[in-house]
């Protein structure tokens, strides 16, 4: 049984000088301490301590072997998105990041699957970047769930998603820049509360805005972190759609009608929560995702899938690798 993790991150070695591509003040860069540890930096500010599996392919593969993971889809750390920059800076920045991701994955091409990022602040530039990355060997696109005040139902974003469907690039959506930050300054609450809320907002916002009615069904779209609070609150959304015309104004079908239009990863950390997620989405719409190598991720990849009651072996095979093989068109994997 192949184990494919669709939700893993890389922070390539980027110098402070290179970070000025994005901003003269210096933006995200990596301070490598040379002893297997480092610090993600934001300008002069320390952002988060990290270890070398985040930037060393050799270390990454060794940890994958120890954890029993065959393949990882590798996407940038969201701090690197750079959506606040001008389109011109964003294009150059994404070219740098994407080339570093390709370089990282080329060190173990049968184990590491490169996933690009794009300057989503400009739809035309994002489409061009996705096409260029696809031609260069990237197997998918990693985007944030919003660009400032623009959600995923924004016309420019929808044009970009339609383009991804046209060129056959799967899209991985990650929450970032979480709402309510001024009220969640302690205890990592933006990650514990904001991330699930952001993802729920993205999925339900697309549904109720009629976005899926305007997107081709060939689009492969996956929401990280188990789709956030979407599955748990889907009944509430359906009830609102049936009882309030302002909820259903732009959506011809109740929210539950759209669960076959996207995937989610399995990063919910509790077998009971995963059971609900599978009941809502179907086992063929849930893919293993761990948030490797960050400490809020699943420490034993696939353990929640394996421990989830009521799943068949066929279900587990799909969720641990089969669905991801189909999503990313990985030949010979199942």
TrEMBL record:
Keyword Transmembrane: no
Known EC number: 4.1.1.45
Protein name: 2-amino-3-carboxymuconate-6-semialdehyde decarboxylase
Keyword line: Decarboxylase, Lyase, Metal-binding, Zinc
Domain Amidohydrolase-related, first and last residues per copy: 4-329
Protein family per UniProt: Belongs to the metallo-dependent hydrolases superfamily. ACMSD family.
Pfam families assigned: Amidohydro_2
Signal sequence interval, chain numbering: none
PANTHER family from the UniProt entry: 2-AMINO-3-CARBOXYLMUCONATE-6-SEMIALDEHYDE DECARBOXYLASE (PTHR21240), 2-AMINO-3-CARBOXYMUCONATE-6-SEMIALDEHYDE DECARBOXYLASE (PTHR21240:SF27)
Keyword Metal-binding: yes
Complex and partners: Monomer.
Matching InterPro entries: ACMSD, Amidohydro-rel, Metal_Hydrolase
UniProt pathway: Secondary metabolite metabolism; quinolate metabolism
Enzyme superclass (EC): lyase
Phylogenetic lineage: Bacteria, Bacillati, Actinomycetota, Actinomycetes, Kitasatosporales
